[in-house]
Structures are given as structure tokens and as C-alpha cells.
Amino acid sequence: MAVDIKNLNHNQLNELISKAQTRQTELRKEKVAKLREKIHAMVKAEGFAMEDVFGGTRKARRSTGTVAPKYRNPANPEQTWSGRGKRPRWFNDALKAGKKEKDLAI
């Protein structure tokens, strides 16, 4: 099917491009689904489960546990900061007052 794009106006050309991109996406999804079915059939034919071949279904996530505090507010020892993220106001105030980071370290 050949389309003479020289005779199309701007709106028609945009519509054609949009339809072509939609069709391209559909074809890609169909191809991926067929490939997934082939792989599943091959794995099953060999007597394995998908999890045996490809591991678990979820990606392993890094643990985001709490970090030990590195700095303590000398005016209020309950206030601490791990050194990560935005500096707390008390930390900035102490630096402005002439203290050094090592003075605030735990």
C-alpha cells in the first residue's frame, strides 16, 4: 500500500503519522507476546519453571535501612543528623556561629 504523501496537507500528514506510530506500537506488542509464548513453551518443554530460568518475578531492591547519626546538636543532644540529605537548620546555625563540622561530630 503506497500512500502519496505529497498530496497530503499538514493535518492529514499528522494523522497518518499518528496512525503509523499506533500501528507500530501494536505490532511490537504482538511480537513481544509471541516471543514470550515461545520462550515459555521452550522452558516448559525442558521441564523447568520460568522462575528457575529467570529467577524471581521481582527485582531485588536495595535495603534502605536507617543510617547511624554522624552529628549531634550541642544545644539539644536529641537532635542528630546522619550527614545525608538536606542539612538541618541547627547544623547550619552552628556552622554560622563558628563551629566546625568536626565539633558537631559524634
Structural features:
mainly alpha, two-stranded antiparallel ribbon, cytoplasm, DNA-binding, transcription cis-regulatory region binding, H-NS_C_dom
Describe the protein.
The chain has 106 residues and is mainly alpha-helical. The protein folds into 2 domains: 8-54; 71-104. 50% of the residues lie in helices and 4% in strands. It is built from 4 helices and 2 strands. Strands 1-2 form a two-stranded antiparallel ribbon. The longest helix has 36 residues, at 10-45. It is elongated, with a radius of gyration of 30 Å. Residues 60-89 are annotated as: Disordered. Its main location: cytoplasm. Residues 58-106 form the DNA-binding protein H-NS-like C-terminal domain.
Question: What structural category arises from helix and sheet content?
Answer: mainly alpha
Sheet bearing the most strands, described? 2 strands, antiparallel
Give the overall average pLDDT: 89
Total number of distinct structural domains: 2
Low-confidence stretches: none
Question: How many DSSP helices?
Answer: 4
Rg on CA atoms, Å: 30 Å
Shape: elongated
Short note summarizing the structure:
GO terms for molecular function: bent DNA binding; DNA-binding transcription repressor activity; minor groove of adenine-thymine-rich DNA binding; transcription cis-regulatory region binding. This protein is mainly alpha-helical. It contains 4 helices and 2 strands, in the order H-H-E-E-H-H.
